[in-house]
Amino acid sequence: MSTAVASPPVGTGAHADVGAGVDDTARLRRVFGAFATGVTVVTVGGASPRGMTANSFTSVSLDPALVLLCVGKDAVMHRVLAEADTFAVSVLGAEQEDVARHFADRSRPMGARQFDTVDWLPGASGAPLLTGAVAHFECAKWRAYDGGDHTVHMGRVLSLAELPDREPLVFHRGRFRRLADRTHGGAE
């Protein structure tokens, strides 16, 4: 005989505020921050290259190989991506917090000068690939969708590379962090 444990009713217990506060953008940002993400820099090449730190990046499909990223409609990168045919994504390593902060700083120089303080290599698409990254993806634009105050950009992966021995940079609860390897022994 098993005993069922009832969930507490909505509005009581540890999650008393479920459903409340979705119009409070500061609170919404804080609660979204409970989900740990990797940190990337999205880049576009061409006559006026651009980079932008983004943690809204994920894989979508293996066949075809697709990724997505979300870019705020008020970001310079929003306009740049709208005009580009290709883009690249560098997944930052744990030692690259300064790179993440640089490309998140809205006061950084425009064009190629913003890449003067970081090490990079030109990708096949012409987009800068950041040296020291855990992985690189070069993508062709595939689709774009309205996402409220952001646009959801999907890219078809054209090429990829990885440095499997590098630890990724992680963003959680408004802070950059590192992974902690806490392997536990025991039966599986």
UniProtKB/TrEMBL annotation:
InterPro entries: Flavin_Rdtase-like_dom, NADH-dep_flavin_reductase, Split_barrel_FMN-bd
Top-level taxon of origin: Bacteria
Gene3D superfamilies: Electron Transport, Fmn-binding Protein, Chain A
Metal-binding as UniProt keyword: no
Domain Flavin reductase like intervals: 32-178
Biological-process GO terms, alphabetical: pyrimidine nucleobase catabolic process
Keyword vocabulary terms for this entry: Oxidoreductase
GO molecular function list: FMN binding; riboflavin reductase (NADPH) activity
Classification via Pfam families: Flavin_Reduct (PF01613)
Protein's name in the database: Flavin reductase
